[in-house]
Amino acid sequence: MSGCFISFEGVEGVGKSTQLARLEDTLLARGLDVVVTREPGGTPLAEQIRALVLHNRSEPMPDAGELMLMFAARAVHTENLIRPALARGAIVLCDRYTDATYAYQGGGRGIDDALIDPLATLAQRGLWPALTVLLDAPVAPSLARARARTGKTDRIEGEAVAFFERVRARYLQRAADEPERIKVVDATGSRDEVGARIDAWVRPLLPS
Ligand code: TMP
Fold first, then answer.
1. Which of 117, 124, 16 lies closest to 78, judged by CA?
2. 40 lines ligand 1 (CB under 6 A)
3. pLDDT tens, position by position, 146-190
4. Ligand 1: distance of its center to the CA of 50 in Å?
């Protein structure tokens, strides 16, 4: 596999989409083959699974159902979009990947890592990002920004601040456990200030 797989993580409203778009522009300006995608989703089928797992409905979604739908979407996305893009040499910028499952379903919902690990093995068949950019900032202002932006909340966005505090803590724990892959980037500051911090981690992975 010759391309480069980079994921972006962080709680809602921390600026992932803004920074993904900025990096996409930078890479396109260099004439690189860039694919921007997201999870859950990224292909028509995986986007249908996204709608299943994120939309609010009257029937409750058990945590186990949420976990397995995240991985169902991931398996589809990984096989149908990410692997083919990497095989042709593209740079894949993915808005969330499996670290989000450990953070939200593990840290947020309390599902044991020992239950998540085999699903990750099954869905990803060994594929992990070369670099994961963890955008980190205090939860409350980030959440307020996300909620103000969309005007309505999906099933997970509607959780209490304490849920997102647990998500953030788990993300930071994963970064501490895997410092080579997961880089914590201070997400406070202007678009370009944060972008420059990200560029410093991405640059060594790019063709010279
Ligand atoms: P987003 O596109 O706004 O980031 O929304 C995706 C939501 O799904 C967000 O609340 C995080 C959540 N999520 C999980 O709970 N587990 C996962 O594995 C992924 C990829 C996302």
1. 124
2. yes
3. 988 876 678 898 899 999 999 999 999 999 999 999 999 999 999
4. 9
